[in-house]
Amino acid sequence: MALEQELRRAIEEGADGRLKELIQEPHPADLARVFPSLKLAQQVKILRLMDPERAAQVLVELGREQVPPLVEGLGPLRIADILATLPTDDAVDLLGDLPREQKDRLLGLMAAADAKEVRELLEYPQDTAGGIMTTEFVAISERLTAEEAIRVLRETAPDAETVYYVYVVNERGQLVGVLSLRELILAAPGMLVGDIMRRRVISVNVMADQEEVARVVAKYDLLAVPVVDDNQELLGIVTVDDVLDVIKEEAAEDFLRISAIDVRGDDVTAPPWRRAMHRLPWLVAFLLGEMMAATVIKGFAGTLEAATVLAFFITAIAGGAGNAGTQSLAVVVRGLATGELNAREILRVVWRETRVGLLVGLGSGLTLAFVALVWQGWPLLGLVVGGALAASILVATMLGSMIPVVMARLGFDPALASGPFITTLTDVASMLVYFSLATLTILHLR
Predict the structure, then answer these.
(1) Is 262 a member of any domain?
(2) Phi (first) and psi of residue 262, to 5 degrees
(3) β-sheet with 204-205: strand ranges across
(4) Contact, 82 vs 56, CB < 8 A?
(5) Tens place of pLDDT for every residue, the chain, 446 residues?
(6) Same structural domain for residues 84 and 207?
(7) Contact 30, 54 (CB under 8 A)
(8) Residue 389: enclosing H or E segment and its boundaries?
(9) At CA 218, angle to CA 216 and CA 222, rounded to 5?
(10) Domain of 351: which CATH number?
(11) Are residues 117 and 145 in the same domain?
(12) Cα distance between residue 289 and residue 283, in whole Å
C-alpha cells in the first residue's frame, strides 16, 4: 500500500525523476499487483518510464484482461519494443487476447523471424502444450563431441530461455536424447554427445492439454519438458515457470467450476450486472432442482402429518448429505487433477469413497439419533433420523465420487460436476431415503 501511495504522489506532483527511482527497486510482480488500483493513464506513464525489458516483465505479470487497454494506451511502437525483449511464449500470451486487427498490426512491427515464430505458436490452442511452449531452446546433434557441443552452447545459449537441459536431435530434427548441462561440462572433451546422452526422454505431444503437461513436469520433477509432434520432431519446450502459471490457472478454474461459476464470465473486474447474469441461470436451474426435493416431501405428506416432528430434522439430513457429497466431490476432482486417481478405475475410486462415507455416515447418524432421543424422548424417532442420515451420507458420498469420474471417462472436465449440482441431487436422494424410512417404520408400527 505504501508503494501505491508513493507512486500516486510522484505522478500527481509530476516528479518523473522520483517516479523512475520508485519503479526500479520493486520486483515486477509487486508492481503488477499495484497496477489495478491505479488509473489507466497512470499505468501507461509508469510503463513508458521503464526500459522495454522491465516493462515487459510487468505486463507478463498482469492478468489477461488488464493487458489490452494498456497495449492500446502505450501505442504500437512502444509495444513492439517491449515484444522484442520477450521470449516467444510470453509474446504469445501477451498477444493472444488482443483483437485480431490489433494483433496483426503489432506482428507487422516485429522482426520478420520473431513474428513468424509467434504466428506459428498462435495457431495452437491456448490450453495446449503448443500454446504455452517456447521455441527458444538449445538443441545439438548427437554427432558432436562434448567440446564442440559446449562451443555451440556459447553461441546459442544467450537466445535460449533455459539451458538446464540440452536436447539432442538427429538430422531430421527428431528428439533422440537429452543431457544436463552438468553432464556435458564434466564429460571428456572428445566424447560424442550420443555416448553421453540419455535416450529415454520424457516429452509431451504438441496438442497435449496443459494440465497433462503440468502433471508430467510434477511427476518427473522437471525444470522443462520438450514438446514434439506426431513424428517426434522437437518443436519447443515448456518451462517450469509456465507450468506454475498453468497449475494456478487450472486450480482457480476448478475451484470456480465446483461452485458452478462461469470461469470466463465471472471475472472480478467485470461489472456486477454481468457477473450476476452469469450466475443467475445456474441458480435458477438449481432452484428448479430443489423443487424436486419439495415434490418428494409432498409425496409423503401423509407421513409428515402423522408425525410432524419429522419436519424438525429435514434440514439436518439434507444438509449433512449435501456436505458429505461436496467433500467427496472435492477430493475426487483434486485426485483426478493431480493424477493421484485414475478415471479408468471407476469402481476402485467409488469404493474408496464409499468406505469413507459408510464410516462418516455411521458416526453422524449415531450423533443425530442421540440428539433426537434426548430432545424428543422417542427412541423410534432417533432410529429413523439417525438411519436416514447415515444412509443419505453413504448415497451422497457415492454420487460425489462417481459423477466426476464418469465425466472424466466421457472426456469432460470433472470439475463441471459442481458442488451445487451434487447438493441438489443429494437433497432429492436424502428426502426420498428419509421419508421412505419413516413411512416403513413409524407409520407401520403405529
Answers:
(1) no
(2) -65, 120
(3) 204-205, 224-228, 234-239
(4) yes
(5) 577 788 888 888 888 888 888 888 888 888 888 888 888 888 888 888 888 888 888 888 887 778 888 888 888 888 888 888 888 878 888 787 777 888 888 888 787 877 888 888 888 988 899 988 988 888 999 999 999 999 988 888 776 767 788 999 999 999 999 998 889 989 999 999 999 999 999 999 999 988 889 889 988 888 899 999 999 999 999 988 888 888 777 666 665 555 555 555 555 556 676 767 766 776 677 777 778 888 888 888 887 777 788 888 998 998 889 889 888 888 887 777 766 777 677 788 888 889 999 999 999 999 999 999 999 888 888 899 999 999 999 999 998 888 888 877 777 766 655 667 788 888 889 999 998 998 888 766 55
(6) no
(7) no
(8) helix 379-409
(9) 80
(10) 1.10.357.20
(11) no
(12) 10
Q: Does 103 share its domain with 153?
A: no
Model-level pTM greater than 0.85? Answer: no
Query: Quick one: cell of 297?
Result: 416431501
Do 152 and 110 fall within a single domain? no
Residues 94 and 25 in one domain: yes
Cell of residue 123, nine digits = 495457431
The enclosing domain of 216 has a CATH number of: 3.10.580.10
Beta bridge partners of 179: 166
SS3 124: coil
At 267, which amino acid appears? D
**CA–CA separation, 380 vs 368, rounded Å?**
13
Measuring CA to CA, which residue among 405, 386, 263, 272 is closest to residue 334?
A: 405
Q: What is the DSSP letter of 197?
A: S
Closest-CA residue to 218 (of 89, 339, 345): 339
Tell me how many domains the chain contains: 3
Nearest Cα neighbor of 149 from 114, 111, 177 is 177
Examine residue 261 and state whether it is found in any structural domain, yes or no: no
> What are the cell numbers at 411?
472426456
**Cα 422 from Cα 114, distance rounded (Å):** 49
Range of the domain at 246: 139-256
- What proportions of the chain, in percent to the nearest 5, are helix, strand and coil? 70, 10, 20
Using CA atoms, how far apart are residues 392 and 265, in angstroms rounded to an integer? Answer: 34
H-state helical runs in 259-313 = 272-299, 301-306
Q: Report CA 385 to chain centroid distance, whole Å.
A: 40
At 65, list the grid cell. 484482461
Question: How far, in Å, CA of 244 to CA of 218, rounded?
Answer: 10
Rounded CA-CA distance 403/400 in Å is 6
Task: Find out whether 307 and 444 touch, Cβ atoms under 8 Å.
Answer: no
Phi, psi of 279 (to 5 degrees): -85, -35
Q: Kindly state the DSSP code that residue 270 receives in the 8-state scheme.
A: S
